[in-house]
Amino acid sequence: MELKNKKWSQEQFFKVREEILNHWPTGKDVNLEDAAEYLKKVPEHKSFPAKLKKAKEEGITLAQPRAGVALVEDHINLLTYLQNEGEADLLPSTIDSYTRQNRYNECEVGLEESRKAGRSMLNGFPAVNHGVEGCRRVFEAVNLPLQARHGTPDARLLSEIIHASGWTSNEGGGISYNIPYAKSVSLEKTILDWQYCDRLAGLYEEMGISLNREPFGPLTGTLVPPSVSNAVAIIEGLLAAEQGVRNLTLGYGQCGNLVQDVAAMRALEEQANEYFKMYGYDVYLTTVFHQWMGGFPQDESKAFGVISWGSATAALAGATKVIVKTPHEAVGIPTKEANAAGIKATKQTLNLLRGQRLPMSKELEEEIKLIKAETKCILDKVFEVGNGDLAVGAVKAFELGILDIPFAPSKYNAGKILPARDNNGAVRILEFGNIPFTKEIKDFHRSLLEARAKVENREVGFQMVVDDIYAVGKGFLVGRPNL
Amino acid sequence: MSKTIILGVIGADCHAVGNKILDRAFSDAGFNVINIGVMCSQEEFINAAIETNADAIIVSSLYGHGEIDCRGLREKCEEAGLKDILLYAGGNLVVGKQDWSEVEKRFKEMGFNRVYPPGTSPEIGIKDLKNDLGL
């Protein structure tokens, strides 16, 4: 199939669908009419689009954890605990890493071993193996909207199963679930496969069922410059809208400098809406802010400091929801108690800041302007190399390093750009690779990094980047020498 | 003579940041680093070790499935003729916060020479490796 940013025909979609539902035995239990009937009965308080809309209108920020374990009963226990004790507003089901690679046989091993060991041997919920039956049991046991959160390059069968089970949101995208999550899967393939997932959501939309789609904003979560992640988010938003998605949440991962983070969120929402309007898409847009995605302090009290800082930024930026970290972040997958503690710390901060926004200042205005200008440089070039086709342009742009995500594992990513913090902790770019910024913008980044180097009495260089990666884990935002 | 090590992230794990930092740290310390990147099978580690006549295999795992992914690696190394090759593992090796001494014991029983908890600085692994190789 030739990749184009064009809505799939019914014929195209159903031809692929027949094959997808045969990838694993549980696929045969997915029936579109039955699923539509089931989804139509989802009450408003368990619908992602409805709850997000209400939050946006009321100007509040919702808190959502990440969570998932191998077995259905244990997963239900975990989610109901996060709902009742953790006071979560929205629920996830984090999908395990084997499912993300479509290795359903290995999930079976993990399920078997989890039963034997009495603890989860998988790092998430293997939704495909559990099928519609298991996923509906989870949905029916909770009282909040449910979303699949994963990192799956080919999520076609997974998406079919979760939507048919009443889960009204799906995270992911053809770029954001490939470049940071895969090593050798081509972008043509993941963009096509995510067009399928988007078309599926679009199809339900046409049947009068609103489903939410959320491209994964933070990418590698490691010093990603705001304009780079915003450009990817806007591309994935436009690709989804073309397939008929009408309810979108675009995201951004906290970098750590308050002014830059608030600016990034405002720039993202405003610029995405401008592009949707320009291309004639009718999209209801909400935003998600991810608490710090990089290395965390081991000490749990210190981790709460990081969590609360992210919560404060999310509130002041006016994000519709915030994705919550836990005090166990530095050591791996949290217990349910630690997970609930993270949500409670988050909600306390959000509640204290309810209604407050970071007021406009000269610094904030300048930062918004800079991020928008950089994002436009990238997007203009993507459209140009694709001869006007955004899907083709995205693939070419990665080949040429016009789109380039720092620290990504994919061989389809150039990996030429190198970010580092300026003296105030804002993420700037040290080596630009082929990112198509103007000379003026590049000089501005350089001058800010030089200013930091001068304070630290060292040269601008790779050591700064390494120091910045470790800094938050050691308790600081900027990686100064001799921390 | 410079010693060769195989560096990689095992299983379906795509955590790339630490891998890039370890690559640089071990290279700077004078090792010949063969970095096979993220999402590597046991066979990829072993094949790389045979091809390059490596002195050690350094396995990272950040996503919690390390226990399943690493099981049997020592036996496969022996079958492949890699007798007594040094095996190190480090990262978030198991699902959840577990008692470290238990985790270490489990991995040592699997045949790993050294096992490192999360957040270990690269310098510690480098120092141990130099010791173990008699450098």
From TrEMBL, chain A:
The lineage of its organism: Bacteria, Bacillati, Bacillota, Clostridia, Eubacteriales. NCBIfam families: MthylAspMut_E. Pathway: Amino-acid degradation; L-glutamate degradation via mesaconate pathway; acetate and pyruvate from L-glutamate: step 1/4. It catalyses: (2S,3S)-3-methyl-L-aspartate = L-glutamate. GO terms for molecular function: cobalamin binding; methylaspartate mutase activity. It comes from the Bacteria. The keyword Isomerase applies. InterPro entries: Cbl-dep_enz_cat, Glu_mut_E, Glu_mut_E_C_dom_sf. This is Glutamate mutase epsilon subunit. The keyword Phosphoprotein does not apply. Its EC number is 5.4.99.1.
TrEMBL record, chain B:
It catalyses: (2S,3S)-3-methyl-L-aspartate = L-glutamate. Keywords: Cobalamin, Cobalt, Isomerase, Metal-binding. The keyword Metal-binding applies. Pathway: Amino-acid degradation; L-glutamate degradation via mesaconate pathway; acetate and pyruvate from L-glutamate: step 1/4. Residues 2-135 form the B12-binding domain. CDD domains: Glm_B12_BD. Its cofactor is adenosylcob(III)alamin. GO terms for biological process: anaerobic L-glutamate catabolic process; L-glutamate catabolic process via L-citramalate. Its EC number is 5.4.99.1. One of its GO terms (molecular function) is metal ion binding. The keyword NAD does not apply. Catalyzes the carbon skeleton rearrangement of L-glutamate to L-threo-3-methylaspartate ((2S,3S)-3-methylaspartate). Belongs to the methylaspartate mutase GlmS subunit family. This is Glutamate mutase sigma subunit.
